[in-house]
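Please fill in the sequence for the structure shown.

STRUCTURE ENCODING:
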C-alpha cells in the first residue's frame, strides 16, 4: 500500500471540501414565557423571583436546565 498517496488524497479532500452552512431552526428563537425561580438578568434588567418574562426558547431551555426558571 502506498500510505503517502492515501494520506495526500485524504488531506486534499479535507482541505477542499466545504462544509454546508449550519441551518438554524427558527423555533429556537421564538419568544417563550418563563416564571423565575431564582434571579437572573435579561437585557441588563434583573428578573425577581416569581416574576414572568419572555426570553428566546434556547435561553429558556438553558434556564430550566440550571433550575432558574420554568416554562409556562
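FILLED IN BY: designer on duty
SEQUENCE:
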Amino acid at each position: 500500500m502506498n500510505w503517502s498517496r492515501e494520506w495526500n488524497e485524504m488531506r486534499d479532500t479535507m482541505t477542499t471540501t466545504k462544509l454546508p452552512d449550519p441551518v438554524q431552526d427558527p423555533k429556537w428563537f421564538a419568544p417563550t414565557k418563563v416564571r423565575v425561580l431564582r434571579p437572573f438578568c435579561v437585557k441588563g434588567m434583573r428578573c425577581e423571583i416569581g416574576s414572568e418574562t419572555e426570553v428566546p426558547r434556547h435561553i429558556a431551555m438553558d434556564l430550566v436546565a440550571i433550575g432558574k426558571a420554568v416554562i409556562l
